[in-house]
Structures are given as structure tokens and as C-alpha cells.
């Protein structure tokens, strides 16, 4: 009877405990979800088994019952351990690991329905570092290497082609005009001087006009009708003792002066009408055409690999002066322009060689940016060289590491000269290199460079 009462009480307790557990598990499903409720159920079942064994009477002396009880205890302990370490929840932001653990491989012969493979995780987004802000020094060097570096093979080919054309022109002049004592043609200009060559496409042919110093003299520009020290006149002397005809160049006299205009007109006719350029071009593997409409003596040369623009200048060298037959536009004739190009190149190279300077680099960049801006193209060439030479007298550090500082300083100097409207020649302070600029041009140049002083990068932007 007592045993029955004990069993009945146990059943009632079990029934009450079961009801409580059912209610608990039902609520757990709502709160924890299916997986959380399953874990809680396993743990509850394990605890319930332990309580049952603790309250039930033991069969003393029965080894089988003790062995069974021990095995059940180990199983329950395994269940409890399983509930102590729930599966680690996958972090959503950790995209390098799959969200679900891979399923174990199926046993041999175990038929399973094929499952669609999950898409591979997207590669992690690597934030690109923001572009590094280049300094003015780096921008200048980049501009120099990308815009101004003429390939050596192209430069060599251009010089060879120019020399071949020069030789053909020299032979023609000697055969066609043997009475005129022309000297030997030689090359000059941006392709050879290294100061302003933006590409291997510009070259000058210098044609020496050999004069007898006893029959000719120079008249300074201040004494000419234009009152400009840049232009000179070449006067025929001693006509009473050596009348016209004693000099081969007397045929180009206007009054008592050697006319640059008449000489240019004669050469222009020879270039356009007398020389067989198609034959010469075919011999050199190129197309050569004279520019008919130009006031200057020009040739256009097209080759498979290079294109050349050739300008021919008759040149007179007397009394340490170099004069070109390049008269100014207008009604004034017979004037000769003093050229200091050879002195400019020589002086810049001398200064760079003395302090390992970067003046030639700076001039190439300055010429490039000025020619690319319509408002500044008249500053390219000689004016820039003279600003650099003036600045070299006061700024001694022209190393490549100071290129940016010197570049900006040249811009500041240019603004100052434009404000005055005067840029004196480095070799002759009487010569104003801005004398032929209009007031409107000076104002436009000054405004552009004034902005560039504060922001030099404006001049390096692609056009």
C-alpha cells in the first residue's frame, strides 16, 4: 500500500512537473524560436531524468541496475553539455565566413535530394585610399616628362632630314646664284637649342650673307626711322670711290641701304617657283612644299615619322652683331632685326653648367604653358629667357629640387614687368622686349599671370 502510495504520488508529481514543462516549452517556442526551444527542451529533459533517478528507490545489490543507471547519467551529462555551448551566432558583418556550417558528406549509398549551392560570398569591400595631392614640383616634373620629352629617335630623324634638305638647298643656291656670296647654311632654332622645343618639328635655316666690311657699315636702331634699338640698317659706304657694282649685293640696295625686303622677295621666288621640291622630297622619302602666302620664307616637310616646319633666315654678322632679314610688319622696309638667340642659349647653358641648374627645364615648361594659352603665346621664346637670366642674377639656387619655387618666381617677375610695360633685354637694357605689345595684350597677360601666381596649376591644366 505504501509502495502504491509512493508511486501514485510520484505520478502526480510527474504529471504536475510535466504540465509545468509543457507550459514552459510552449512559451519558450514563442520567445526563443524553434531552435532555442529545442535547446531548452533537451536541457529540461536531462534535468528531469536526474530528478527521477534521485527520487526513485535504488535496487541495492543489483549490478545491472547500477550499470544502467551509470550509462543514463553519462547520457544526461552529454545532453547538459550540449546545452551549455549553443552554436555561436554568425556575425552578419563577417562576410568572409559562410553563414551556415557545411553539412557532413553523405554516407555511401545515401540518396539525398540535390540542393542548390549557395552563392559565394561577395569579396570584402576594400576602400580605395583617396588620391594623393601632388605638389607643384611633382606636377611640373610630370608635365615635363609627359609633354616635353622628345623621343631621341624622332629628334635624330628630324635633324637628319633637316640637314639633308639644307644640303639640297645649299647646292641649288650655289648653282642658281653663283654671283651671290652666300655662306654655308646651318641649322638653328628650338630643335637644336634645347630651350623651347615642344616637339621635333621646328627648325631654322640660317643663310649667311657675306659682306665686305670695307663697303658696308651698321646704323644703330636709335638712329633709324623707327627709333627702335632692336632694328638696324646696313649702309653702303664709299660710293664715290667704289660705285654700285663693286659689291655683289648692290642689286638689293634701296637708296644707300641693303634692303632686307628685296632679298627676302628674291629668295621667296626661288623657293616657290625655281626649286624642284617634289624631286627632292621623293629623294628624301618625304613631301616638301613651300608656304606661298607667308611673308617669311617657310617650308612644310611631311615624313612618315616626323613633320617639320622650316623657316629660312638670311643673316648678316658684322661688328659682333647678328642681324636677321626679318623686318617688322608695316610700311617700314629695309630694316634688319638684331638676334641674340645664340647669346641666350650660350648664357643659359653656361649658368646651368656652373651650378647644375634646371633653367633649361624651367624654360621648356614656361614655353609650353605660354604657347598653349592664346593670351600668353607672345611671351614664349626670347622674353622668357631674359626673365630667367635677370632672375639668375639674384636667385642662385636653380637646382632641380627648387624648380617649383623658381617657376613661381618667374611668374611673379613677369607680372611685375607687365605692370611696368617694360622688359629690358639682358644684353642691352635699351631694348624693351614688350615694345611691340598692345596695351590690351599686356593687360590680358597680366591678369592671367596674376591669377597663376596664386595658383600656378592653372597653367598646367590640359587644354
TrEMBL record:
Assigned keywords, A-Z: Membrane, Mitochondrion, Mitochondrion outer membrane, Transmembrane, Transmembrane helix
GO biological process terms, semicolon-separated: mitochondrion organization; positive regulation of mitochondrial fission
GO cellular component, one term: mitochondrial outer membrane
Residues covered by the Mab-21-like HhH/H2TH-like domain: 359-445
SMART domains on file: Mab-21 (SM01265)
Membrane topology of the entry: Single-pass membrane protein
InterPro entries registered for this protein in UniProt: Mab-21_HhH/H2TH-like, MAB21L/cGLR, MID49/MID51, MID51-like_C
Annotated stretches, region: Disordered: 80-130
UniProt subcellular location: Mitochondrion outer membrane
Record keyword Acetylation present: no
Domain Mitochondrial dynamics protein MID51-like C-terminal: 156-344
Pfam families referenced in this protein's UniProt entry, alphabetically: Mab-21_C (PF20266), MID51-like_C (PF21297)
UniProt name for this protein: MID49 protein
Gene name linked to the record: Mief2
Amino acid at each position: 500500500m505504501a509502495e502504491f502510495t509512493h508511486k501514485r504520488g510520484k505520478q502526480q508529481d510527474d504529471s504536475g512537473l510535466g504540465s509545468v514543462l509543457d507550459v514552459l516549452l510552449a512559451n519558450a517556442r514563442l520567445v526563443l524560436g524553434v531552435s532555442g526551444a529545442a535547446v531548452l527542451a533537451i536541457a529540461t529533459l536531462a534535468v528531469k531524468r536526474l530528478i527521477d533517478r534521485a527520487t526513485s528507490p535504488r535496487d541495492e545489490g543489483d549490478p545491472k541496475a547500477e550499470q544502467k543507471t551509470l550509462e543514463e547519467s553519462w547520457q544526461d551529462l552529454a545532453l547538459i553539455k550540449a546545452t551549455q555551448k549553443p552554436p555561436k551566432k554568425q556575425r552578419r558583418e563577417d562576410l568572409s565566413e559562410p553563414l551556415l556550417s557545411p553539412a557532413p558528406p553523405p554516407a555511401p549509398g545515401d540518396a539525398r535530394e540535390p540542393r542548390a549551392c549557395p552563392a559565394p560570398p561577395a569579396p570584402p569591400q576594400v576602400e580605395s585610399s583617396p588620391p594623393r595631392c601632388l605638389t607643384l614640383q611633382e606636377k611640373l616634373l610630370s608635365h615635363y616628362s609627359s609633354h616635353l620629352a622628345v623621343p631621341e629617335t624622332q629628334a635624330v630623324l628630324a635633324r637628319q632630314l633637316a640637314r639633308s634638305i639644307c644640303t639640297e638647298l645649299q647646292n641649288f643656291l650655289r648653282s642658281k646664284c653663283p654671283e651671290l656670296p652666300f655662306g654655308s647654311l646651318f641649322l638653328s632654332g628650338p630643335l637644336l637649342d634645347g630651350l623651347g622645343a615642344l616637339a621635333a618639328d621646328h627648325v631654322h635655316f640660317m643663310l649667311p650673307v657675306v659682306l665686305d666690311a670695307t663697303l658696308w657699315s651698321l646704323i644703330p636702331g636709335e638712329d633709324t626711322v623707327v627709333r627702335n634699338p632692336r632694328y638696324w640698317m646696313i649702309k653702303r659706304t664709299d660710293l664715290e670711290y667704289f660705285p654700285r657694282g663693286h659689291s655683289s649685293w648692290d642689286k638689293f640696295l634701296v637708296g644707300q641701304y641693303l634692303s632686307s625686303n628685296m632679298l627676302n622677295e628674291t629668295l621667296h621666288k626661288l623657293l616657290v617657283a625655281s626649286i624642284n621640291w617634289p624631286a627632292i622630297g621623293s629623294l628624301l622619302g618625304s613631301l616638301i612644299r613651300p608656304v606661298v602666302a607667308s611673308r617669311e620664307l617657310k617650308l612644310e616637310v611631311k615624313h612618315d615619322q616626323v613633320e617639320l616646319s622650316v623657316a629660312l633666315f638670311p643673316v648678316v654678322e658684322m661688328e659682333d652683331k647678328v642681324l636677321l632679314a626679318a623686318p617688322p610688319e608695316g610700311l617700314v622696309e629695309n630694316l634688319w632685326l638684331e638676334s641674340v638667340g645664340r647669346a641666350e642659349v650660350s648664357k643659359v647653358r653656361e649658368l646651368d653648367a656652373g651650378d647644375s641648374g634646371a633653367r633649361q627645364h624651367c624654360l621648356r615648361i614656361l614655353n609650353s604653358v605660354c604657347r598653349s594659352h592664346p593670351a600668353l603665346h607672345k611671351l614664349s621664346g626670347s622674353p622668357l629667357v631674359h626673365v630667367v637670366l635677370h632672375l639668375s642674377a639674384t636667385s642662385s639656387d636653380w637646382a632641380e629640387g627648387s624648380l617649383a619655387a623658381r617657376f613661381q618666381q618667374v611668374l611673379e617677375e613677369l607680372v611685375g614687368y607687365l605692370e611696368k610695360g617694360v622688359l629690358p633685354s639682358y644684353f642691352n637694357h635699351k631694348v624693351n622686349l614688350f615694345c611691340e605689345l598692345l596695351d590690351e595684350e599686356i593687360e590680358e597677360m597680366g591678369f592671367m599671370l596674376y591669377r597663376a601666381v596664386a595658383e600656378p596649376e592653372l597653367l598646367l591644366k590640359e587644354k
